[in-house]
Amino acid sequence: MVLKRKRGHWILFTGFLLTACGVFSDGEGPLSPAREMEGTWQTTFPVTFYIKTDYCSSQLELVASEEREVTMIITRDTDYTVNIELRYTGSNFTVLDSQCDPTGYVPDVSPMYLRGNISGTQLTVMNSEPRVLGIFQFTTDLMEGTWSDMWCGVYCQDVYTEENQLKLTRQ
Predict the structure, then answer these.
(1) Most buried among 67, 75, 103, 109, using CB within 10 Å?
(2) What Rg do the C-alpha atoms of the chain give, in angstroms?
(3) Structure confidence by residue, pLDDT tens digits, 104-123
(4) What is the sign of the dihedral through the CA atoms of 28, 34, 39 and 41?
(5) SS3 for the chain, per residue?
(6) Angstrom distance (rounded) from CA 42 to CA 22
(7) Is the pTM of this model over 0.70?
(8) How far apart are CA 65 and CA 158, in angstroms?
(9) b/e map of 97-135 (b: 16 or more CB within 10 Å)?
């Protein structure tokens, strides 16, 4: 599996092709979940989320960062899908580009209500559009992955982590 960022969007390259509906379309279907995902998962230390906006220019630019403590409450939906309530507490919001203050960042909503597809030891987190927001690998009590929530209204913004820096443990 390879997760690459291209033009502000995350592209996932795996043995499976995900359609826009989050359905596996290689004809074989998803792998059975390797572990039980239900439960509460939390970060053990704050994770840096970076914020890009096009508020000050015509392209997305890194304008701020924020430390977040994240909690995911995961409940089973079907054999291969889960419901996720994602909560976070932000701190240390830092403007990184003094030429772009205010940054135009619209704060994320907490809690977020999301969906997840499970295949083997991989959890793909999506919103209701559905748009992929995160790809995680998990074991019995550990989960790590990469987050990128890019959207556009009047202005565009992307809130993301560095690769595999969002680490959670089962509580």
Answers:
(1) 103
(2) 16
(3) 999 999 999 999 999 999 99
(4) negative
(5) CEEEEECCEEEEECCCCECCCCCECCCCCCCCCCCCCCEEEECCCCEEEEEEECCCCCCCEEEEEEEEEEEEEEEECCCCEEEEEEEEEEEEEEECCCCCCCCCCCCCCCCEEEEEEEECCEEEEECCCCCEEEEEEECCCEEEEEEEEEEECCCEEEEECCCCCEEEEEC
(6) 25
(7) yes
(8) 11
(9) eeebeebbbeebeeebebbbbbbbebbbbbeeebbbbbb
- Record the tokens describing residue 1, joined without a space: 């599996």
Alpha-carbon span 134 to 86, nearest angstrom: 12
CB atoms within 10 A of CB 63: 26
In whole angstroms, give the CA distance from residue 20 to residue 136. 18
Tokens encoding 36: 């039980």
pLDDT digits (tens, 9 = 90+) for 40-72: 999 999 999 999 999 999 999 999 999 999 999
Separation between Cα atoms, residue 24 and residue 29, nearest integer Å: 6
Q: Which of 3, 1, 2 is nearest to 147 (CA)?
A: 3
